[in-house]
Design brief:
The protein is of the alpha/beta class and about 250 residues long. Helix content is about 40%, strand content about 15%. It contains seven helices and nine strands; from the N terminus they run ααββαβαβαββαββαβ.
Length: about 250
């Protein structure tokens, strides 16, 4: 935490200054640079290492569209995904994060999708409109379909916002399984050294699909892959669904 706090302040200030003259893509990669520093710090200080498989499943081409739907267990994958992905990513997040000192101020300078969760229908319309624009320029949209961080060995309610966006834009869905809770449990101050598996699935076409039916396929792939990657978390049987109220 100290390493992240010490590095984010000068980095965010540099982003704020550079945003006066730099392009949105340049600003993104500048911010992604800090995320790489944070992840390397996690490896050096905490002993947490990423093991990424399935990079060959990512779409190729400078403007290839994709909606990444990622298992969410901790803050670690939020930091890691931009650090490992070859395309700029646009997170869909609540606008309140923009008010976090330094971190939120830098996020506000990036071309991402921040929404007002109190305005549900207008929020999704904004996600679709901005998602189409961003993917047309080669930015991938990333969402956590469970809406919040889920304890190890459990699963939340998979909401169809991500698949609705994919169908509206014609983009394929890329499911991603992440075992970050083995090292960085949800809401834990103390972390443990170890390997975090990030498994990237094959693209799932969205054309002609229904949002709920497509999300069930995404959920099945992610949860099956989670059992393969982290079998110890599921030795007691089926994970208990976690009810969540956050909107994605």
């Amino acid at each position: 935490m100290l390493w992240m706090a010490v590095t984010i302040i000068p980095w965010a200030l540099a982003v704020l200054v550079f945003s006066l003259v730099g392009s949105s893509t340049q600003i993104y990669w500048m911010c992604a640079g800090w995320l790489k520093v944070a992840v390397r710090g996690g490896t050096t200080i905490l002993g947490i290492e990423n093991r990424v498989t399935g990079m060959e499943n990512l779409p190729t081409g400078q403007t290839s569209a994709a909606v990444l739907l990622v298992k969410h267990q901790s803050t670690w994958e939020t930091l890691s995904m931009p650090a490992i992905m070859p395309h700029p990513l646009a997170y869909v997040f609540k606008k309140e994060l923009l008010y976090v000192p330094f971190f939120g101020w830098a996020m506000a300078r990036m071309d991402m999708i921040h929404i007002d969760r109190s305005q549900r229908s207008q929020a999704f319309s904004k996600v679709v409109a901005q998602g189409k624009r961003l993917m047309a320029q080669g930015t991938w949209v990333i969402m956590f379909p469970e809406g919040t961080r889920i304890p190890r060995g459990q699963k939340g309610v998979y909401k169809s916002g991500g698949t609705r966006l994919a169908i509206e834009t014609g983009a394929p869905v890329i499911p991603v399984a992440v075992t970050s809770a083995k090292c960085w449990p949800r809401k834990a101050f103390i972390k443990r050294p170890g390997i975090v598996d990030i498994s990237i699935g094959k693209p799932i076409p969205s054309a002609g699909r229904q949002p709920d039916e497509l999300m069930r396929e995404v959920e099945e792939w992610i949860e099956t892959e989670m059992r393969r990657l982290d079998p110890q978390a599921y030795v007691a049987g089926q994970p208990t669904p976690v009810a969540v109220t956050k909107i994605h």
